[in-house]
Specification:
The chain is mainly beta. It has 2 domains: 78 residues, Beta Barrel (Elongation Factor Tu (Ef-tu), domain 3), CATH 2.40.30; 94 residues, Elongation Factor Tu (Ef-tu), domain 3 (Beta Barrel), CATH 2.40.30.20. Helices cover 13% and strands 43% of the residues. The chain is built from 3 helices and 13 strands; from the N terminus they run E-E-E-E-E-E-H-E-E-E-E-E-E-H-E-H. The strands form 2 sheets. Strands 1-3-6-5-4-7 form a 6-stranded antiparallel β-barrel. Strand 11 and strand 12 form a beta hairpin. The protein is globular and about 50 Å long.
Amino acid sequence: MFTGIIQAIGKVREPEKLGNGVRLTITTPEEFHLEEVHVGDSIAVNGACMTVTKINGRDFQIDVSAESLSKTTGLDTFGEVNLEKAMRLGDRVDGHLVSGHVDGVGSVESFEKVAESYKLVIRAPLKLSPYLAYKGSVAVNGVSLTINSVEDTAMGALISINLIPHTIEVTTLKHLKAQDWVNLEIDTLARYIERMVSLRDKEGDDLF
């Protein structure tokens, strides 16, 4: 599990073909404290939970399967990525509970500066629309964010998010532009509520 609070920005250094997947070497800054990480540990890379397969100094490697590539964006190219180590029991949850399992890929509709902050508008896939709510949480490329508004359309939900300067400074969201793709993960609580409601509708109130 993760919190959606990005701990560092890494740089993909050497994408290598690995069957139908890819092997990535990611260079981390000193403040990420890679010496605390071991082979087999989990690190969220742009919001996708990945297993560390090798560590060399400030570099670590991950193997991204074809399945993961088909469900995410930005994990098969050079560039900067958001990094977060798995949380430990007892850690503060400053964002929200994030599993690192990407639910879908959204499209950036617009990204613009508004006064001292930034307004990010994303079109989420139609299948995720029921899980996105005003003042609810969503992870965008692994970053825990609060939804300011939701507009349902035939092509999916348009969600508007306000980004403070600090978030822009410490994450890769600063690089976003219209028509970019982003990894989205819905709130875990919304996932369970939808399941409970669907079972109640199917089985009746006696279920509860």
